[in-house]
Structure formats: C-alpha cells, structure tokens
Amino acid sequence: MEKHEVVRLNINFKTLEEFENFREYGQQELSMKEDLEGNIIENDIESPFYGVYFGNKLVGRMSLYKIDKKFDRYFDPPQDYYELWKLEVLPGYQGKGIGESLVNFSKSLGLPVKTNARQRSDSFWEKMGFEPITYHSDRDRGENPYVWFPEGVSEQEN
Amino acid sequence: MEKHEVVRLNINFKTLEEFENFREYGQQELSMKEDLEGNIIENDIESPFYGVYFGNKLVGRMSLYKIDKKFDRYFDPPQDYYELWKLEVLPGYQGKGIGESLVNFSKSLGLPVKTNARQRSDSFWEKMGFEPITYHSDRDRGENPYVWFPEGVSEQEN
What we know:
Two copies of one chain form a homodimer.
Chain A: E1 7-11, H1 13-19, H2 27-37, E2 45-54, E3 57-67, E4 75-76, E5 81-89, H3 98-107, E6 113-116, H4 122-127, E7 131-132, H5 137-140, E8 145-148, E9 154-155
C-alpha cells in the first residue's frame, strides 16, 4: 500500500465545500460554516479534521478530538487520548490505502486512540491494530468501541 | 403508510441470530450473546431493543436507552429522556413505514428522544418531527444530534 500524506485541514469555504462530498456530513460541518459566515471564527484556523488530497481534491478525511484524562473511561493508566470519527474515503479512491494512512497518522501522535467501528468495519480496525473492548451499556450506548493501545497502556477496569 | 406493530425484543438465541442480519451489529450484540451463553443473563429477559416482525422474521429494529435526568445535557427542563440508536430496516422491507412505526413508538413513551442522525438521514428525522440542535463539540463529538421535544420541552442552553 502506498503511503499518503495526511494534512491538517484549515477551516475555510473551500474545505467546507469539499466536506459536502462526504456521507458523514452534518451539524458539525454546518456549525463550522455558520461560525465562518458569521465571522465567529477566522478563515483558515486549524480544525479537528485531517485529510488526504489527490491533486486539489480532498478524497479522505477523519476528525481527531483530544479527550482530557479526567474524562478517560477506557485506558489504564487514565490519560489524554484521541477520539477518531468520520473516517471516510470517497468512492473511487477506496482500496488505495488512504484510510490506512489516516489511521496510522492518528497512531503516530503518541496517545491512545478510540473509535466507534461502524457497519461491520471490524476487520479493518483489527488490521490496523485496534482491539474491541468490553461493552458497557452506560458508557458505550450502542457504540462499537475499538481502541488502539500504545505500549504500556491497557483497558481500564470498569 | 401502514402502521406496524412494535414489540419489545426478548434476548434469546433466536433474537440474537436475527440481529446478525443487520448492518449495525457489533459489541453490544456480542456482549448480549456472551452473557446468554455464560448464563450471566437468563433467556428471554427484556432488552433495550424493539422491533417489527413480518411473520416470523425480524425486519426492523431500534434500541431505546433511558438516560437519567442528572445526565441530561439536551433538554430544558432537564429530565429523563430516551436515546434512540441502531434504527434499521432490512433491505427489501424499506419504504413500508417500518422505520416510521419504530420512531412513532419511541415518541409515544412520553419522554424526549435524542438520536444521532447519520449519513444524510436528516430529511427522514425532520419528517418524523425531530429537530437538529445546536452543535457543541465537547458534548456532541462528531455526532449529528436530532431531538424530539414533547409539549413544554425545549433545548437546554449550554
């Protein structure tokens, strides 16, 4: 698999227009657009989104959100970690290792990573070194939590 | 649209086998299966899942999970509410009002309902009387929250 360059996406009208190509588009993106239109945020500020471009076209993206140690209910010892969501590669660009490059980028940041593996994507996450963790209905509320443990980190007992 | 009978699903091996037909199948279902196999839970106990049958076949389902008032960050006044997830109708049974019957059932319970509208299902939720609420990145973490307000309930200020 080819390795693809992952870049942090700046929020501007061009990025927001590209986001409209993705299936997982909703209030997070609309809220960013309103903030930009209302001058509540500046053009080109850094977002929680990372992406892969083919030429000028954004073809894959994910959001990485750092959760503070005090809210950590997954890892032992408790620590800051990343929640990864909206991992998506546009049709026509799948099977080229773009998703893998995005996930490898999240693992390169040195913190544990947690995601909600959706719609039978379990084998993808396992290939990426993620593991399912024990389901707790209060914490997980229907999610399908997969985590990546860096060296020395394990599952938190609940 | 026809109205379909919604029943609460009992956890047993037959139900769990039917769950395997749905795309959103994961650790919640696997955990229920392990609990049943290990005699940690009894056969035929009530689950948080509700479904619609065609004959003997489970063709639609959702999970409804009651959240305690003290964790309510969506509604004013703060109150117990339902989180609705894994709403899904099998291919071949879509377009018959089965999803609508499930959602109407959730609204009939007398409490507000919150869901995460996914993959451009916004128009469905709006048709069902749900509304998008203001996106807060700390609370919503990439979700696309839609809520249904009963009479006298409004959005919580954050």
